[in-house]
Amino acid sequence: MDVLTENFSTYAEGFLGTVELTFFASLLALALGFLMAAFRVAPVGSLRAIGTVWVTVLRNTPLTLLFFAVLLGLPRFGLVLPFTVFAVLALGCYTSAFICEALRSGINTVPRGQGEAARSLGLSFGQTLTAVVLPQAFRTVIPPIGSTLIALAKNSAIAGAFSVTELLGTYKTLSELGYNIIWTFVWIAVGYLIITLTISALFNVLEKRYGVAR
């Protein structure tokens, strides 16, 4: 317990950093994921192409490489932001590709007649998607989206290698102070467990309330 009690402020700072990264990156991932899923099923070919390229590139790019591209590449084009913002961009964009595919699979489970009925009533594609298709699709994809966001929380550990304050990065400070590395990582693992179990509990509640009964 000495490792935790004597360095509680260090752990707390790292824990809050990971929570902040996870929260804002999740919001970005969900927003972009919904947008790209809409593009993927849009009747306009150019939008479908954009969605396909987005998903294909990001799903097949290592997250560490994406961090390098964002944190080191964007400043070369004059975009200078705090490293935390760059980390949110990298995590959010990467995860959005997986959110997109989860949503697209859910959209494919909605009977085609639902969309045809909506269009026969005069609804546009956007109205049909947001008011008819996505609400039904979301009910079927709650578990995979929850799993994807849990993975995002764990992937945030990469940000520590790019001078971003997060939980895993606390081991460097404590190692330099001579604390036992095993117990240092035990308490780091506990911190990640708290975050991932909280996300899991939230999505369990959503699934029980809105999910499709099986």
TrEMBL record:
Instruction: Show where the ABC transmembrane type-1 domain sits.
Output: 15-203
Q: Which Pfam families match?
A: BPD_transp_1
Superkingdom is Bacteria
Record field: transmembrane:
21-41, 53-74, 80-100, 121-138, 181-206
Q: Which InterPro entries does the record cross-reference, listed alphabetically?
A: AA_ABC_transptr_permease_3TM, ArtM/GltK/GlnP/TcyL/YhdX-like, MetI-like, MetI-like_sf
Annotated membrane topology is: Multi-pass membrane protein
Q: Where in the cell is it found?
A: Cell membrane
Q: Which UniProt keywords apply?
A: Amino-acid transport, Cell membrane, Membrane, Transmembrane, Transmembrane helix, Transport
Q: State the family named in the UniProt similarity comment for this chain.
A: Belongs to the binding-protein-dependent transport system permease family. HisMQ subfamily.
Could you tell me what this protein is called? Answer: Amino acid ABC transporter permease
User: What organism is the protein native to?
Assistant: Streptomyces yaizuensis
